[in-house]
Amino acid sequence: MIMLYGSQQDYDLLSGLPTDKPPMTAEQVAAMHAHMEKVHQALAESGELVDARGLSAPAHARRVQFTGGVPVVTDGPYPETQEVLAGYTIVECASFDRATEIAAGFVDPDAAGGFVDVRPVLDGFEDLAG
Q1: What is the mean pLDDT of residues 23-36?
Q2: Residue 43, SS3?
Q3: Under 8 Å CB-to-CB from 78, ≥6 apart: which residues?
Q4: Which of 1, 39, 86, 104 supports an S-S bond with 6, CB 3.0-4.6 Å?
């Protein structure tokens, strides 16, 4: 699974809401979408794409945690968290190295601090031991 990250501010930029960053132009948004479409199309054509989805903005998320044995629900976004999972792409490929190579295609080399995480998806609980 290739996990893509963003922030509430990134979602706001895409929505045209004011942020501390300069607003994205329609051309920049279109270029970003075109890039993602190109990467996913290539993966579909190679037979390596399993699934890919974007996630809603952190403002629409809820965190559930237990305090004193009682579930506490907090609405997002969460000020203590800058990066949040923004979407994912699941690939089935020959090796972890190939998955890492694919993941590099999602990172904008011109964006300082941009990153994705790559993690194997387990088939079941028995995989946790290995």
Answers
A1: 86
A2: helix
A3: 58, 61, 63, 84
A4: 86
d(CA 115, CA 38): 19
Q: Check residue 116 and report its DSSP letter.
A: E
Residue-range definition of the domain harbouring residue 118 = 2-129
Q: Residue 7: its pLDDT value, please?
A: 82
Q: Domain with 121 in it: what CATH number?
A: 3.30.70.1060
Q: What's residue 112's pLDDT?
A: 67
Q: How many distinct structural domains can be found in the chain?
A: 1
Residue 7 φ/ψ, nearest 5 degrees = -140, 170
| Ramachandran angles phi, psi of 14, nearest 5° | -65, -30
The residue whose two tokens read 């607003």 is 23
Angle at 10 between CA 48 and CA 81, to 5 degrees: 95
Q: One-letter amino acid identity for 91?
A: V
Backbone dihedral angles phi then psi of residue 72, each to the nearest 5 degrees: -120, 125
* N residues, the chain: 130
**Helices marked H in 1-130:** 8-15, 26-46, 96-104
